[in-house]
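User: Please fill in residues for this 359-position structure.
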């Protein structure tokens, strides 16, 4: 996997598990006065925390690295070890790339990315919503989001809050008229920080605003860190990774049926969001299998200013099921078919929509 592709897909989960504890990942000691060997440090971190670390012979890997005199070959070897021990989800971001927009991994959403699709303008009039504002089906697209990994924590936190609030504002705007069901479009969600995504769509994830409910977890094999919703707040364990600066929005008709759209560009944190909906009552997914990176990365800062995205856990759904691979939709829709149409057809047949049509 190339670095360019990694920054577009794999690097999107840098902030995903910042609070996930890996007590064995202390930095390896370096002799006083010597510059740190970044490649050996990466191997140290991988051996102790990578999800699939048992698939690598680490003493042999260290010996091979020591015998490699060419810098490019050494880097290639380290990249291969990262890919093998993380299921191709981890990534070494070089120090030279950390000052670039790609290295900082910043990607902020625009309001128009959240709205329902539109058809092109015609000679008879301007472009209009595909189904019109009177459509009984609500719609929200959740794009991928990455805060600036080099910014102060207060700035990064505000970027997350802004994104979550943007999603909830879009829900509120869609909810201005009666909706009997909702479509959540994740087909363009490559990943990023999952927490503002979950907070943003928490009104749809929740099936009872007054009750705490599990929506997923990180599974390291030795432990599980639960994600839950309580009173509009999304929690990791007992902590809220993102706190809104105003009360969370509550739908006019809570616990509606939800159709989730997914596809091959749904990756990493986008897959976490899909998992949070999986197993929810009155919920069904449509489209094609996802990218296959439903594992979680933790950003590890390296001595030279670079960063290792260390894959250390599998994401599981609210029934605590997941294998770290591709997510298959409940209804597979071919390349030439319309997933939106299939989702709408299912929603319209749900009891709440049938009752809506009779009123």
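Assistant: Residues filled in for all 359 positions:
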């Amino acid at each position: 996997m190339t670095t360019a592709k990694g920054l577009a897909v794999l690097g999107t989960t840098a902030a995903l598990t910042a609070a996930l504890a890996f007590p064995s990942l202390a930095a390896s000691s370096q002799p006083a006065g010597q510059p740190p060997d970044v490649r050996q440090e990466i191997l140290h971190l991988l051996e102790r925390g990578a999800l699939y670390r048992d698939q690598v012979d680490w003493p042999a890997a260290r010996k091979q690295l020591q015998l490699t005199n060419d810098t490019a070959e050494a880097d290639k070897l380290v990249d291969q070890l990262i890919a093998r021990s993380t299921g191709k989800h981890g990534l070494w971001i070089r120090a030279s790339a950390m000052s670039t927009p790609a290295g900082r991994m910043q990607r902020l959403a625009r309001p128009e990315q959240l709205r329902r699709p539109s058809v092109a303008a015609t000679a008879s009039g301007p472009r209009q919503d595909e189904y019109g504002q009177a459509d009984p089906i609500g719609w929200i697209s959740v794009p991928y989001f990455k805060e600036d990994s080099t910014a102060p924590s207060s700035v990064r936190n505000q970027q997350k809050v802004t994104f979550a609030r943007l999603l909830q504002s879009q829900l509120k705007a869609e909810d201005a008229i009666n909706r009997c069901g909702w479509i959540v479009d994740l087909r363009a969600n490559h990943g990023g920080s999952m927490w503002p995504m979950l907070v943003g769509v928490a009104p749809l994830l929740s099936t009872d605003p007054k009750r705490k409910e599990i929506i997923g977890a990180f599974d390291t094999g030795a432990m599980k860190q639960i994600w839950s919703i309580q009173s509009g707040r999304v929690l990791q364990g007992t902590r809220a990774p993102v706190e809104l600066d105003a009360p969370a929005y509550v739908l006019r008709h809570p616990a509606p049926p939800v159709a989730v759209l997914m596809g091959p560009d749904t990756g990493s944190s986008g897959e976490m969001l899909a998992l949070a909906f999986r197993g929810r009552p009155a919920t069904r997914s449509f489209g094609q299998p996802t990218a296959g990176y439903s594992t979680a990365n933790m950003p590890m800062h390296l001595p030279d200013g670079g960063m290792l995205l260390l894959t250390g856990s599998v994401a599981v759904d609210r029934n605590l099921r997941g294998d770290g691979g591709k997510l298959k939709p409940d209804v597979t829709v071919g390349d030439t078919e319309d997933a939106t149409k299939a989702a709408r057809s299912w929603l319209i047949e749900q009891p709440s929509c049938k009752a809506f049509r009779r009123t």
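For context: The radius of gyration is 22 Å.
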